[in-house]
Amino acid sequence: YFTLGVCFAGIHEEMLKDVVRTRSYQNVITQNNFLFKDKIVLDVGAGTGILSLFCAKAGAKHVYAIECSQMADMAKEIVKTNGFSEVITVIKGKVEEIDLPVPKVDVIISEWMGYFLLFENMLDTVLFARDKWLADDGVVLPDKASLHLTAIEDAEYKEDKIEFWNNVYGFDMSCIKKQAMMEPLVDTVDQNQIVTNCQLLKTMDISKMSSGDASFTVPFKLVAERNDFIHALVAYFNVSFTKCHKLMGFSTGPRSKSTHWKQTVLYLEDVVTICEGETLSGSMTVANNKKNPRDIDITLKYAINGNRCKVSRTQHYKMR
Amino acid sequence: LLCLFCSARFDSDGPLFAHCGSVHGFDFHKLVRELGLDFYGCIKLINFVRSKVAENKCWSCAEISQLEGKVPWAEDSYLKPFMEDDSLLHSLSIFDDEEDEDCGMPVVTGECSVGNGRSGELQGNGLNTIIDDCSDISARFEKAVTTESNGGDNNGSLSEEQTDRQLKITRASVTAKEIKKVDDNYFGSYSSFGIHREMLGDKVRTDAYRDALLDNPSLMNGATVLDVGCGTGILSLFAAKAGASRVVAVDGSAKMSSVATHVAKNNGLLYDENANTEQKGGPQVISVVHTKAEELNHKIVVPPNGFDVLVSEWMGYCLLYESMLSSVIYARDHFLKPGGAILPDTATILGAGFGRGGTSLPFWENVYGFDMSCIGKEVTGSSARFPVVDVLDSKDVVTDTAVLHYFDLATMKESEMDFTASLELRLPESGAAAVAGVTWCHGIVLWFDTGFTDRFCKDKPVVLSTSPFSTPTHWSQTIFTFEEPIAITNEKSVVGSSASVGSAECPAGTIRSRISIVRASEHRSIDISIETTGISSDGRKRSWPAQIFNL
């Protein structure tokens, strides 16, 4: 069990089969030809080249597709097979290391989002490309992303994933629980599990932000919409393409159609008993791990002072 | 730790280098600073000095400062320990502040889990003594030192070194740096609990080991047990419960060995060397050691070939991915007593042919209106790079199952991990034999079984199977798609046909695949080559070009 490179094509298959993701980009491109017609486009992290193909079909003057993995060789062949060799140039290499034959591009398009929006994401790479090559009146797609938080009841799954360690073949492995809870779970949450409102934590404007803006501390206040127990907080993200003729985008929240990103579940040490109208408040800090910048450190402070439950705690999570 | 220049010994590298500076005029830290050496530069320097001292050549004489660019120890051959069991290489503390892993759990004093292998931490802990088997080496060394000439001959050597520098550096094998990088990723990938949750939740896997350990009291009662790659320690816990008198659990991940220690302690099974004799004889038998299996005897005293039982869950995708088997074989040869039990003791790779349903070709042919079939072919073509690890639906299996290769884990040599063998595939005789038309075989699916046979498990032998016909495990199966599908039939008489074997007009009676699985140049990867031949019932053959995969 050691996932480097295993099922390589399978990762792309999964992403392409994510209809919400791929069709959203397709719709953005095909329903907004004016953004692409006769323009120079840069596709950052092109993978199979699907976005470049959509752009070429929409009338782009030229598309530069940058991909650093072996998939670049496949993308080259796909471009050729589908007759777009004159329009699309695939460049195999790292964005930070390659040269473009043009000084500026009109459009940067990228599907860079990771789990929890920021985990293993290519955001820094997109910002680098933006700063180096985007024309002054150029467009970044998507240009807005936002992170959201809500709270859920999740007794059954917490039992399976966390309480599991209490009794493993008759042995007490509960000392692992605390550490296991530090690993956020990427999973699909049923909207019926949602106990509180959903709160917007943070928005990012990819056309303007700097990479430091992806580290932040924000407060939250979640109000219960029914009497229930809260076992976990759930984070998810939305992306928007605001430069389109009409606002377009998609959400990866539990009330929306599921995507391969699912949602990110953060189990609480406490089981919070909450009554309708009561508040679970606190703050969340997100930052890149100093030793391993690809990892994300999350600090969650939460407190409730309710009829049935008075609790206050700080928990740390690490996505790696 | 043996001095670089004389037979003086030290407990840690600090005093050793201080001694080299004051007595031998060799200031190691100064050299490292001035030349800006990294960890591997230091290793190379040490090996270089040892090699030159052994040959009585002066390494320095101010020649170092006149070097332009390359130092005389630049070659990768100096990564290889010059001296066998050179503990100084393991104890180098010069870069230590960047190495500490955050284990998350405090190491309770008095326990035997060793932090990060530095010799300094082994003091005062009765269990941890470095075996001093350097006696033959120091004898060799004494000889070299006494024949060293006084004065004379100190600068004849450098012209040789200049020639050495100009020699082409050949890279015949993976350098120590590459291995360290891969190993860091490898052990690190197991430090996330999701993976352990998945493995422990794999009932087929864990039940098999539980049964082998708990249902074979005649083997386990009173036995001394070595658990290689213990993870959370579950196998050691089973062994202790089964009545082992002593269990040593080993893991290359600092975090997991810390976890395993806590788990053993919380279950009252952790060995306490300070316990008095009355308390001994109870279940507290498990010691956890953070080490690679190959370095176990550097960390604790183990009598060579002293364990009664070696247990390990080492299997990777396609059995051999991760190449942990070589560590298990090393442990077997060095730490298991002759005739001792190895669990599991057999491993078999099996295969069968599958039909179109087992491929992903249809998906890639039309992706949002674009033809991406080259990716589908990439998975199958002659230069395909990755096999697919996935669960194959048993209904997609079209041929009989055949054995590709069998390993006797008790006797095999490490070199036998790399092998070539043939798979002979035919349609089943019965059942769907009356299928009209032709069956298309799109590729080969491989899986493995491991046996805890009655050779050692006399009370209750157990088989752990990852077959597509059994309950799926986290190993799934490994799927290799042919470049083009091959028609196969079990009709005995094929009408004489000029069509090539394996086509619809002339289906093959047998599909023979010659499969080689060898360790790849990248540490822990494997290369798999498959050469397939279709054989018609009248003996005609057609061969397809070899397909190479890397996992």
TrEMBL record, chain A:
**Keywords for this protein:** Methyltransferase, Nucleus, S-adenosyl-L-methionine, Transferase
Its Gene Ontology cellular component terms are:
nucleus
> Is Methyltransferase found in the keyword set?
yes
- InterPro entries, per the entry: Arg_MeTrfase, PRMT_dom, SAM-dependent_MTases_sf
The EC number of this protein is 2.1.1.319
GO function terms (MF aspect): histone methyltransferase activity; protein-arginine omega-N asymmetric methyltransferase activity
Protein arginine N-methyltransferase domain segment(s): 143-306
* Catalysed reactions, as listed in the record: L-arginyl-[protein] + S-adenosyl-L-methionine = N(omega)-methyl-L-arginyl-[protein] + S-adenosyl-L-homocysteine + H(+); L-arginyl-[protein] + 2 S-adenosyl-L-methionine = N(omega),N(omega)-dimethyl-L-arginyl-[protein] + 2 S-adenosyl-L-homocysteine + 2 H(+)
User: Where does the protein end up?
Assistant: Nucleus
Looking at its record, which EC class is this enzyme? transferase
- Tell me the Gene Ontology biological-process terms attached to this UniProt entry: methylation
Quote the SUPFAM superfamilies the UniProt record gives: S-adenosyl-L-methionine-dependent methyltransferases (SSF53335)
Give the main localization category. Answer: nucleus
Purpose of the protein: Arginine methyltransferase that methylates (mono and asymmetric dimethylation) the guanidino nitrogens of arginyl residues present in target proteins.
Annotated protein name in UniProt:
Protein arginine N-methyltransferase 1
Organism, scientific name:
Aegilops tauschii subsp. strangulata
Automatic annotation (TrEMBL), chain B:
Q: Where's the Methyltransferase domain?
A: 225-340
Q: Which UniProt keywords apply?
A: Cytoplasm, Metal-binding, Methyltransferase, Repeat, S-adenosyl-L-methionine, Transferase, Zinc, Zinc-finger
Chief location: cytoplasm
| Region spans: Disordered | 146-165
Does the keyword section mention 4Fe-4S? no
Reactions catalysed: L-arginyl-[protein] + S-adenosyl-L-methionine = N(omega)-methyl-L-arginyl-[protein] + S-adenosyl-L-homocysteine + H(+); L-arginyl-[protein] + 2 S-adenosyl-L-methionine = N(omega),N(omega)-dimethyl-L-arginyl-[protein] + 2 S-adenosyl-L-homocysteine + 2 H(+)
Alphabetical list of InterPro entries matching this protein: ANM3-like_C2H2_Zf, Arg_MeTrfase, Methyltransf_25, PRMT_dom, SAM-dependent_MTases_sf, Znf_C2H2_sf
| Record's GO cellular component terms | cytosol; nucleus
As for what it does, the entry says: Protein-arginine N-methyltransferase that catalyzes both the monomethylation and asymmetric dimethylation of the guanidino nitrogens of arginine residues in target proteins, and therefore falls into the group of type I methyltransferases.
Protein name, as recorded? Probable protein arginine N-methyltransferase 3
Q: Which organism is it from?
A: Aegilops tauschii subsp. strangulata
